Amino acid sequence: MHLTQNQIEGYGRQKLSPAELLSVSDHLGACEACRQQVERALNGEAAFLALQSEVLGDATENLSSSAQESHLIVERMAEYVEGRLAGGELHAVEDHLASCEQCDLAVNDLRAFRDQVAPELDREYRPAPVPAATENRWHRLAAFLPSPLLRSPALAFGSAVAMLLLLATGWLIWQTRQRKETKPEIVTTIPSPTPIVTPTASSTPTPEGAAATVIAQLNDGDGQVILDREGKLSGADRLPPAYQQMVKDALTTQQLTKSSLLTGLTRPGSSLMGGSERRNQFSVIEPVGQVIFSDRPTFRWSSLDGATGYVVEVYDEKFNLVVTSPQLTDQSWTAAPPLKRGEIYSWQVKAVKDGQEFKAPRPPAPQAKFRLLDEKKANELMQVRRAYASSHLTLGLLLVQAGLLDEAEQEFRALQKANLDSELARKLLSQVQAWRR
């Protein structure tokens, strides 16, 4: 039984389905008469080259002598993809690919075929034992073609196209089956990393892990703040990046930096001034050398024996009198009108005794200066207290930056209470206490 005219024309124009194409190719391998009809239909070598150009593109090798001069042959492309070229041959092919877009596209197609379709051919469609190591995939692919077809380029090409179509169809079906089979595995493996990652960030590291990685660890609020040798900070994820860096720096250096806002608020007393005041117990107590959060500070001083009243005077940096208290009998007074934020003030108290005034401080004691916290920093601290009230470490570090040492000491005391055996907590507290003294 010979091929029909429709089969011959369909074979030449590549209009056959993959199954029909394979059946026709098998028949051509055994029937010399049909093979001659197909060759005549393809019009010899010229029609074969036109068909090859249409199917694989102009980038494939052309068997004519003129095409061989302008493009790489298939065998050379295969050797290049397999990495079997060296020396001058390799440089010649690379130079040609750099200047010939068609051959470069063809090489990419061959490489894609090797990486995707060829492995499946080796595994599922190999009809014979494993070939010798020197054989490559292209020789094994040629082994599938019947020997009569190897003598006819047109028929060999048609058979190769049929095989490629079948392989591509089989590969697509296999990929679809693999995706269906692997989907359930993806769903079941997603939760598995969760139990591993979560305890690492929230639970205490094992003694062996802590000895190897952790350099600082503090109980803070409802959790723990941990810093390892690689600089990874855990337990402070809810803090803004700037606050996280502040905490990380403090845990790394285990040192606090004294606020620049405290600069100029204290100075030593002068030994050149009168010394009788040293024997007098009447002196100012606070605020002295401090940054004050409230814009209505409370002034305190010690009593003078026999004094009948006291008057507080507050001055700005230019020694202009800003506010004066009425005559008082107690040793404290809260400023009635709010003072301007961000400014430095000095103050003194006058005691009235036996019709005379006694002032404190008096030389050689230094001036009693203080600074009011500026509006921006005051608002930031109020927001932080609401948002991170339980984090004594964060609040303490921010208060140190603002120069509010009294409030900072309270936070670090609470931090030490939560870390009784921590040398780091004691060290941070002692630094603030030293500045206060």
What can you see in these coordinates?
This protein is of the alpha+beta class and 437 residues long. The protein has three domains: 5-176, no CATH class; 194-261 and 373-437, no CATH class; 277-372, Immunoglobulin-like (Sandwich), CATH 2.60.40. 52% of the residues lie in helices and 14% in strands. The chain is built from 18 helices and twelve strands. A hairpin with a 5-residue loop joins β7 (309-315) and β8 (321-324). The model is unreliable at 44-49, 55-69, 124-128, 130-135, 141-151, 182-206 and 269-280 (pLDDT under 50).
The chain-level structural class is: alpha+beta
Question: What is the tally of beta strands?
Answer: 12
Shape: rod-shaped
Radius of gyration: 45 Å
Helix content: 40-55%
N→C terminal distance: 113 Å
Strand content: 5-15%
Helix segment count?
A: 18
Number of domains as seen in the coordinates? 3
Major sheet, described briefly? 6 strands, mixed
On the 0 to 100 scale, the average pLDDT is 76
Q: Helices and strands, in N-to-C order? A: HHHHHHHHHHHHHEEEHEEEEEEEEEHHHH
Q: Which runs of at least 5 residues are low in confidence (pLDDT < 50)?
A: 44-49, 55-69, 124-128, 130-135, 141-151, 182-206, 269-280
